[in-house]
Amino acid sequence: MLKKGVERGEVLRALGEVFRAHGYESASLTLITEATGLGKGSLYHLFPGGKEQMAAEVLAEIDGWFELNIFAPLREADDPARAIAAMVAGVDQYFHSGDRVCLVGMVALGSARDAFAGAVDGYFARWQVALASLLRRSGLSKGQAQRRAEDALLTIQGALVLARARNDAGIFRRALSDLTKRLLAPPDRDLWTG
Amino acid sequence: MLKKGVERGEVLRALGEVFRAHGYESASLTLITEATGLGKGSLYHLFPGGKEQMAAEVLAEIDGWFELNIFAPLREADDPARAIAAMVAGVDQYFHSGDRVCLVGMVALGSARDAFAGAVDGYFARWQVALASLLRRSGLSKGQAQRRAEDALLTIQGALVLARARNDAGIFRRALSDLTKRLLAPPDRDLWTG
DNA sequence: GAGAGATTGTACCGATCGGTACAGAGAGTC
DNA sequence: GACTCTCTGTACCGATCGGTACAATCTCTC
């Protein structure tokens, strides 16, 4: 018997790795039973909604991790430099310095996108808002804070894609380093602000 | 009967759209016959190697398009500002301002990655080299040129992912605009250069 | 118009897909 | 130990997967 509660987290972690490794559509029930060590009986007992529920819960768990370790600290921080360094360190840790792929981004590109559109959009939206609020407190205009936060998210996603495409984790490391500098740079002197 | 040569390009174009819309693994033969208007008989006559050959040829055709319209102009250009503007315009056109996904990046994230690793890496590698060579001619150090070229590729990929995830093509447009500025900025005054 | 070769639709293949049914094993209570 | 209720392995479902076989058809050449 499953030891309630505690173990579900374990299962979700294993599920996450399967989805990351093969993508939502290609993660077959066979692959899933192997990765989790659970037969179909257990799987469908745990997730009556099937694969879709599994993926939804995995996404929710990822969201929870980021909420706790990235978004909330960003919202509550008062020292921008320290907060950004912490975010970058957290991201680097989570993505294993570029070896791990972003399941949320992956889902966004795949054909299962529509089924999880809300979760995907919410994840990025809350990240952007949290980061922008910190940037705003660091003295940036609202527009610039939003733009820089958007730039941060897209840089991380792009670095993950390119690092995987070229099989070079250094790309991710360098991108995070550059990103830190860009986020902490003084406000741009644009046409409408300078 | 197929009108030799000319038509194959048409078929590849349709194939590309199916792969882009569903991903390599989820693009079923049924989907493919619908999109191309070709039955299995024709398909396997045209591509004896099956799905894998289809994808390989689609990737090669994409590569060819970029070689002609992006990489070569980059290598041959003498005016950096103009060349970068042309690249950005070409990219914007190819990706339909963020509405179209990058098949190469998509394959890189999927489980078919290994089968096409060479093509994927080559595509990005030649892009980076071509862009870096232009940047070098514009006065950047070798290292900076390489880094900025890397940044450009990753920005484009990330913008495509985020634009799709958030269903906001504006993200792509803004990213390209920012990217242009970053590429044309004067050399960074880093520890070892300044 | 006969023959050759290229091209195509259709039936079919075994494998696997996600999902269901259900008998029975395991644990908790009395 | 008998009664629950939770949990799980296995057999099975129809559908679909990528791919093959092949006869029929088309286009061209002579």
TrEMBL record, chains A, B:
Name the keywords, alphabetized.
DNA-binding, Transcription, Transcription regulation
Gene3D superfamilies in UniProt: Tetracycline Repressor, domain 2
Q: Its Gene Ontology molecular function terms? A: DNA binding
Q: Which domain of life is it from?
A: Bacteria
Classification via InterPro entries: Homeodomain-like_sf, HTH_TetR, Tet_transcr_reg_TetR-rel_C_sf, YxaF_TetR_C
Domain HTH tetR-type span(s) in chain numbering:
5-65
Q: Which residues does UniProt assign to DNA binding?
A: 28-47
Name the PROSITE patterns for this protein.
Answer: HTH_TETR_2
In its UniProt entry, what is this protein called? TetR family transcriptional regulator
